[in-house]
Known about the structure:
Elements: H1 15-24, H2 28-35, E1 44-47, E2 66-69, H3 75-85, E3 89-93, E4 95-97, E5 103-106, E6 108-112, H4 125-130, H5 139-157, E7 163-167, E8 172-176, H6 179-182, H7 186-198, H8 205-209, E9 214-216, E10 221-222, E11 227-228, E12 230-232, H9 234-238, H10 251-254
Antiparallel strand pairs: 1-2, 1-3, 3-9, 4-5, 6-8, 7-8, 7-12, 10-11
Amino acid sequence: MVQYYLPIGMRYSTLEERKQFYSSEFNLQKVAQWFGSQSDKVKFAVIIGRHTKIYPEKYKEDASTTIIIDEYSGLEDVKGQIIEFLPEAVYYDRNVYDENDHKIGQELAFDLDPENITCPIHGTLADKMKRHQGFSFCELELEMVKQEALRLYEFLANRFSEVRVVYSGRGFHLHVLDQQAYLLNTKERLDLAQQVKSAGFHIDEWVTSGEMRLIRLPYSLNGLVSRIVLPLTKGELESFDAIHDERCLPKFLSKKLTF
Length: 259
């Protein structure tokens, strides 16, 4: 198994640690606040162990697949299913569906990942891929992608009125919740993605175009780095330190960290 190099203090979560987090720390109230009145209409998804290769033995055959959670009686039920799978990652579907399960819109989002940053130490993403380290990143890349997230926030705030930032555990997601953004078609999303890339941002075009409809669930655990997925205000983002900030450290890690 290839072990990705990560900043000091970041590491894969064990199955027991995932269970501990989702059993005692996972904040369903904040998850409900994130979705508002739509919290009972969202489709969720989990990936059990695609990148970490850590998974319950009974789910070995499904460890790398994306499992959709679209039948549940409430968020407590979703939590129970997550605890059953003990996944490395939890996502939600950005699509909006009507009563007949037909797509009627999609939340607009932008994904910034540190491995896409050209690092003066570790090189380009292509360089990292050659070393089989495509998901690896260092503290410098983490700081560089944070600065890019701040610039992208300013860029989007000039066009949209409701932009939210989320620390994904590795990089940053910017969510646009303006009503008209939900109604953009694929071509309009692609055009916007190209505009953003032309302005110098290293976004994942697949996410912005809508082809990748899943995005990491706020307040879930990113099991690749043992960090809580954390929404941030712009002011919080400016001073955010993903290495030490207690808000994104699960209890199983914060008790052991000594810097």
